[in-house]
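Long-time lurker. I teach an intro course on protein structure, and each term I like to show students one example going from raw sequence to a predicted 3D structure in token notation. This year I'd like something fresh instead of my usual example. Would anyone be willing to generate the tokens for the chain below so I can use it in lecture? Attribution to the forum is fine with me.
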Amino acid sequence: MNNEFIDSEYIQQLIAGDEAAFTIVYNLYAKKVYGVSFKFLKDKAQSEEIVQEVFIKLWLNVEKLDVEGNLWLYLFVITKRLSINALRQISKSKEFAEKLVLEVTEIHNTTEENVLLHDLERCTDNVIATLPRQQKLAYTLSRKQGLSHKEIAEQLHISPYTVNNHIVEALKTIKIQLRHFGFIYLLLFFIRF
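-- Reply from a regular --
Happy to contribute to a lecture. Here you go:
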């Protein structure tokens, strides 16, 4: 018996809803379907899923089969199409995963920078608290409140030159103290302040 006669016979039985014929067709072609799918996907589990999908599609669409058609060719076309669709989904999910990793990395970096900045501000505030009173006032009015040397001099009843000296001394002390906390803090301090 040739293959076309066997296919024609099984197709007629499938169209009639014969489950035993479906089981025979499955046993005849499942390994071939798996082989085609595996050539595309290179993944055992996904190829097994494709085999199941192919035979589900066959069973759900038996009324569309051509009695004179080639059953293997029909199964091959379905297998190829489903495998290519699976590859597309894989590539989309990989792109999505890559985007997600980038976003998480960016969020992580931002969070890390915020933590460093918070630590820097805390350390700087601790150092400022230890400054002599006039240096602390001059520095705070200049850097935190944004007043000019002239405005600070008027508020503290001292000369602008003295204000400048207090701020320079405060910055030197802060710089020396922040070295103990590491270069990153020092770098962030001078970029931030």
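Some talking points for your students: Helices lie at 3-15, 19-41, 44-60, 71-130, 133-144, 149-156, 160-179, 183-192. The CA atoms of residues 104 and 110 lie 10 Å apart.
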